[in-house]
Amino acid sequence: MTTKRLHSPDFVSLPDEVASVFHVTAADGAVLPVYAWRDAPAAPAPALLFGHCTGFAAGSYRSLFERLATCARVFAFDARGHGGSTWPDGPLEQVFSLAHYVDDLRRVGAAVAARTGTVPHFAGHSLNGRAALRLEMAGGAPAWPSLTLFEPPIFPPPGEADHTEAMEKQGRLVRSTERRVAAWPDPASLVAFLKGRGIFGVFSDDDLAQQVHATLRPDAGGGWRLCCPPAIEAATFRSVRDDLDSWMRLDAVTRPLVLVRGDPSMPDRDWITAASATIAARMPGARLITLAGAGHMMMFEQPERCVAIIAEQLTSRSPD
């Protein structure tokens, strides 16, 4: 299976001025950029690996990394189908399966550990929080010193209290993603379109500019194109809806971890916010933190609070 390069080979979601880059090759030939934040405390400061959400990229969280770099050596990566990654040809349901995202995270974690000489702490938002939980369920996870997960989307099966809400909202998300415009004349046009719209309504001007830089790349034919094609983003969202096995296996995740959710009383809450209390309750070692007034994009709404939560975990001892 040959790797299909759909963008400029030198595209990175975090610029060289703030992060160096190396690459990890996945089992099927996908190539994932891994970023090492340049401005970091000297060793023995703890290493932290961060995983982004669906449709975003490592560079989407640049402001968060600037804050985290005061207490950790920060690493991040572009998942397959996102940012500066490449991926092989094949059916979307196979190339962007949960199993691949999970194994990719395992490989990236091992690569960071090899570079730093220590297994990093891990913090993941949505997509990569889910991958981290599945890695724990499979028993092949690195011995992360701590796990901090921001609303991992573990889908509730029929009969669970939040199933109907989850089906309606995830279905709506898939349909809107399939209609997403992939091509843009320039970054400013996408910034103007996103400003104040949907989840981006909580983004500062700087965060929105960084989001567009990280997720929009020059098109070989002229203009600009989303790094994560709508078909791939929609396929990843469908995989969440179709995965009921993860919910049934939550009790296998026994290690201590922190699960952070937004405010379930918000009128436009995400279904993951509602389901997170049950998700946490099903994991014997989980501690649930609720951020009042926040939604699924909590690290853009309350970045200082999110940094404080992660920083608290950086003092955790590695598991035996």
What does this structure look like?
- With 320 residues, this protein is an alpha/beta fold.
- The chain has a single domain (3-313), classed as Rossmann fold, CATH 3.40.50.
- The chain contains twelve helices and 13 strands.
- The protein has an eight-stranded mixed β-sheet, with helices on both faces.
- Helix 10 links the parallel strand 12 (257-261) and strand 13.
- Helix 5 runs antiparallel to helix 8.
- The longest helix is centred in the middle third of the chain and has 19 residues, at 98-116.
- It is globular.
- It starts with a strand and ends in a 7-residue tail after the last helix.
- Mean pLDDT is 94; it is low at 1-8.
Task: Provide a short characterization of the protein structure.
Helices cover about 40% and strands about 15% of the residues.
Features:
320 residues; Rossmann fold; eight-stranded mixed β-sheet; three-stranded antiparallel β-sheet; 12 helices
Which SSEs are present, and which pair or pack?
Layout: E1 3-4, E2 19-25, E3 31-37, E4 47-51, H1 62-68, E5 73-77, E6 87-88, H2 92-95, H3 98-116, E7 121-125, H4 127-138, E8 147-150, H5 163-178, E9 183-184, H6 187-194, H7 205-215, E10 216-218, E11 224-226, H8 230-242, H9 245-248, E12 257-261, H10 271-281, E13 286-290, H11 298-301, H12 303-313
Parallel strand pairs: 4-5, 4-7, 7-8, 8-12, 12-13
Antiparallel strand pairs: 1-6, 2-3, 3-5, 9-11, 10-11
